[in-house]
Design a protein that fits this description.
Number of helices: 5
Pfam family, one: Glyco_hydro_28
Radius of gyration: 22 Å
CATH topology: Pectate Lyase C-like
CATH class: Mainly Beta
Family: Belongs to the glycosyl hydrolase 28 family.
Keywords: Cell wall, Cell wall biogenesis/degradation, Glycosidase, Hydrolase, Secreted, Signal
GO molecular function: polygalacturonase activity
Distance between the termini: 38 Å
Shape: elongated
EC number: 3.2.1.15
Length: 437
Amino acid sequence: MWSSSFQDDPLANFLEQTPGYYPSAYPSFFGTIHDDRNDDFEERFANLKMEYEPEIVDSMRYDQLGTPATLLGEVKVDDYGAEGDGITDDTEAFKKAWKETCSSNVGVLVVPEKKYRLKPITFSGPCKSDFVMLKILGMIVASNDRSDYAKDRRHWLLFNNIKNFIVEGQGTIDGNGKIWWKNSCKINKTQAVTFRRCQNLRVCGLNIKNAQQMHVRFEQSVDVQAFNVMLTAPEDSPNTDGIHVTGSQNVQIISSVIRTGDDCISIVSGSKNIEALDVTCGPGHGISIGSLGEGNSEANVSNVMVNKAKLIGTTNGVRIKTWQGGSGYAKNIVFQNIIMENVSNPIIIDQNYCDQDTPCEEQDSAVQIRGIVYKNIKGTSASEMAIKFNCSRTFPCQGIVLQDIDLVSYEEDQKANSTCMNVMELETRGRVSPTCS
């Protein structure tokens, strides 16, 4: 499975030396991803085009895992002046507590069961301890004073350059995004939680809601798992993607519920070896690869598996979207074992994506889409077109497999249809309805 420079698994070493730790109760998360996953992906997708046989991937499940019974010690934000009354600005107390955590051998920062108000804050590494944990038991709520974001309008909670890092708990992170939604703008808009240049990261059990823009952003990170997270925002909240993956590798999103106003999961350029397993999505805009190639840019995404998902009332189902004029590729992507309920555009590829007020210019170049498998996808379509492949005339989609597809109209008196433009090497297997025409 995935290879890494941390072959000796420092988290496992740390925990095994900790009094009260029982390996059988807490198998090392990082140990499970330090093998040949990257090689496995490459082998699995090597012959994807026509001879590839999709398979159900049995991924590791972490819902049985707990927390080490005891740790070497803890740092509590209250001990550094945090009030936790939901009114007082606790930002400086959090900075002091993080500095102590990151610079010592303790490695565990605790947010107790109170309500903490924070301005934008950066938690930076590298840290001294081999293993760092942030335990969120209470609520962290964002300042709603837009002037507090003058120095960095892009980030509220930024975790930067941290290795062997676990963020977990039954607490809540509230982006307090209502004021931002009223002034919606994609450019320089604050994102709730960003993990940038992190390695060996686990985010588990949290409720993250009402983000200013994106809820969780994994950026230039390696060996990441988001497990059992709940991400929520109103259906009409603009640009509130659930999980956004950019420039990252070896990412798992497992057993999570995402109900927001934009993409439940969006995967963009520089991302490789991404797996979404047992995800419930809706409302929202579905699960998207892209958009890719905006502004004539090069974009590359490969080795993506979406497995055992359920989409409910979303404006798109599983989508690949690219702009005209771009270059690069989106390849080796599998969508399988998916249930759709009242979903518009359940299966869609759009190589002519244009998210702007004026019409986009016709261009010859495009991001190449190839090696895409749709298997065992069933349910109801809210749109007439249940399958829509709008591929480029100059760079048509290649190596598309449809297997065991059963999509019907949500309205009993209507028929679900399909349109498949500019697709090369299209193969159908088993029963496929509607048929691609």
